[in-house]
Amino acid sequence: MDLVTGALLLLGFGFLIANAKLAYDYVRFLRRRRSALLTWRIPKPPQYTFALGLGVALGLLVFVKLVLIRRQAFGEAMMFAYYAYFFPMSLTIGRGFYEDGIWADNAFIPYQEIGGISWREDEHQVSLVVISRLRNLARRLNVPGDKYGAARRLLRDKIGEHAIHFAGTGLDLGAHDERDEA
Questions:
Q1: SS3 at position 11
Q2: 175 has pLDDT over 50
Q3: In angstroms, rounded to a whole number, what is the distance separating the alpha carbons of residues 49 and 60?
Q4: CB-based burial of residue 15 (10 Å sphere; 0-12 exposed, 13-18 middle, 19+ buried)?
Q5: Which residues pair with 130 in a beta bridge?
Q6: How far is CA 55 from CA 5, 78, 146, in A?
């Protein structure tokens, strides 16, 4: 096996993992979409057309390698699947609020895992930063301007019904209304 073939196989396994994660996320979204409370689609990234073009080019390369040259094309096939199918499909996942959690820009966080929230505003967008209670990480959810008020009200309601609970995540002196965090 030459160096290029080995590198393509290694890339193929990396893209296989990425494809499996995106497929898993999409299946979870299909099961969860009936419980959507407030969702929206994320805008297409600036390189979206380039990614689709790369998918078409990789599809042609896979065809040539398999049919004309009769060589394996695992790495190229996994990259083709990612750019032509899984990446565009992942953009259709509704980001936002569901009955049992928040679908941030890159992961779903159940309400019981939320240890803290914070709003970040700049001149171009408003983002909800969700801090996990179980893992030491934060996820970002970019909220469109027309959904901002509804998102704040929904968060306040979820905190009020104790779906999101912040006790034990800081200095709790007892005189704090958790709904003020929204």
A1: helix
A2: no
A3: 17
A4: buried
A5: 117, 139
A6: 19, 10, 33
Measured CA to CA, the distance from residue 116 to residue 129 in angstroms comes to 8
Domain boundaries, the chain: 3-90, 95-181
Q: What secondary structure letter does DSSP report for 129?
A: E
Task: Give dist(CA 167, CA 102) in Å, integer.
Answer: 19
Per-residue pLDDT band for 1 (boundaries 50, 70, 90) equals low
Backbone angles phi, psi at 3, to 5 degrees: -65, -40
Residue 148 has pLDDT above 50, yes or no: yes
**Sequence-distant (≥ 6) Cβ neighbours of residue 32 within 8 angstroms:** 98, 100, 103, 108
What is the DSSP code string of 66-111? IIII----HHHHHHHHIIIIIHHHHTTS-EEEETTEEE-SS-EEEG
What distance in Å separates the CA atoms of residue 67 and residue 57, rounded to the nearest whole number?
15
Give me the phi and psi of 141, to 5 degrees please: -125, 110
Write the CATH number of the domain with boundaries 95-181: 2.30.29
Q: DSSP letter at 173?
A: -
Looking at residue 181, what DSSP letter applies? G
pLDDT band at 137 (very low <50, low <70, confident <90, very high): confident
Burial of 94 (0-12, 13-18, 19+ CB in 10 A): middle
